[in-house]
Amino acid sequence: MSLFHLPPIWMAPMAGEAASAALVAAVSAGGGFGQLGAAYLAPARIGEIAADIRARTSQPFGINLFCPQPWQRDDAALDAYLARLAVWHAELGLAAPARPAQFEEDFEAQLAATIAAQPAAISFVMGDPGAARVAALKAQGFTVLGTATQVSEGLALQASGVDAVIAQGFEAGGHRGGFLGSAEGALIGTMALVPQLVDALDIPVIAAGGIADARGVAAAQALGASAATVGTAFLMVDECPLSSAYRTALLAARDADSTLTRAFSGRLARGVANRLTRELDGVALPDFPQPNAASRPLRQAAAKAGQADFISLWAGQALPLSRATGTAAELVSALAKGWRA
């Protein structure tokens, strides 16, 4: 055991399809630290899944939330995006897309549900939770973590009092977790980011991005990280409830198929390129989370229909190293071989 008496192998908190009690519990029960990506979950659902996790394992787990994002509603831009989606809706035999009634969950209600769920750790991405909130959470006994994609973000999070910083490298799958400057200005690789944060901060740094096997874990430790976070590799384990279309696309993807895109959500994220990312490349989109809410019906229908061209295939650059099948516990064991006690 290392950081905060938690294991050195962490599962990245993946929101969406992978946010399941079975997967989180299997990682924690298997000797790692599972995390629930709760960003898209209704508050009541956070409590339900946390209770399910706890029913499956007595081991600690974490819950992750997106910090509130500043955004401006833009109906004209949203309608233009919906018009593009309408073509693909028609291909799948769906009704024309409409403006969503709700764009995102209430963050304060999500946080209250997370606190009530009593995870071992609460982590944040896409922002600095702030000194007052961090202090309040720590006073209640929670370990609090923030996510940095550059040193300035790590310093801001440290000033707010977080217990540790997750260093999200350029290679990581899913949404970019930074919050200072532009996302394109913080595309720093894990190999360069982790040691810079380790040198700059007085608190532990957790490496994330491009880690998929024991070699990556060993490298993260050599760079000074106190734990290694793995996301994409856990998408392939038996307990992960991915749609067959998503899983098949990941198995077929090559290294050069990885791309950064705003096509599905309006916020820069890494995944496997497909028809939708290519056809929306360079197209101006409304602010996140408007496209994310607007494209959800298409993504859900495409998953059911086996149409990977219209699914957000979030995955990191280490995807070709992440294709071993088996259980979450087996993957944790394989990864842990790279960590020196």
List keywords for this structure.
single chain; 341 residues; alpha/beta; TIM Barrel; eight-stranded parallel sheet; three-stranded antiparallel sheet; 11 strands; 14% strand; globular; FMN; monooxygenase; Aldolase_TIM
Account of the protein in words:
With 341 residues, the chain is an alpha/beta fold. The chain has a single domain (3-336), classed as Aldolase class I (TIM Barrel). The protein has helices at 21-29, 43-56, 75-91, 107-117, 131-139, 151-159, 190-200, 214-222, 244-252, 275-279, 290-305, 328-336, and strands spanning 9-11, 34-37, 61-66, 121-125, 143-148, 164-168, 174-175, 205-208, 227-230, 258-261, 269-272. Strands 1-9-8-6-5-4-3-2 form an eight-stranded parallel β-sheet. Strand 8, helix 8 and strand 9 form a beta-alpha-beta unit. The radius of gyration is 19 Å and the shape is globular. It starts with 8 loop residues before the first strand and ends in a 5-residue tail after the last helix.
Q: How many domain regions?
A: 1
Low-confidence stretches: none
Q: Helix share of residues? A: 25-40%
Classified by CATH, the class is: Alpha Beta
Neighbour order of strands in the largest sheet: 1-9-8-6-5-4-3-2
Please state the average pLDDT score. 96
How big a fraction of the residues is strand?
5-15%
Spatial separation of the terminal alpha carbons: 8 Å
Q: Write down the CATH topology.
A: TIM Barrel
CATH homology superfamily name = Aldolase class I
Give me the CATH architecture, please. Alpha-Beta Barrel
So how many helices?
A: 12
Structural class: alpha/beta
N-to-C order of helices and strands? EHEHEHHEHEHEEHEHEHEEHHH
State the total count of DSSP E strands: 11
Overall 3D form? globular
Major β-sheet, in short?
Answer: 8 strands, parallel
Query: What would you report as the Rg, rounded to the nearest angstrom?
Result: 19 Å
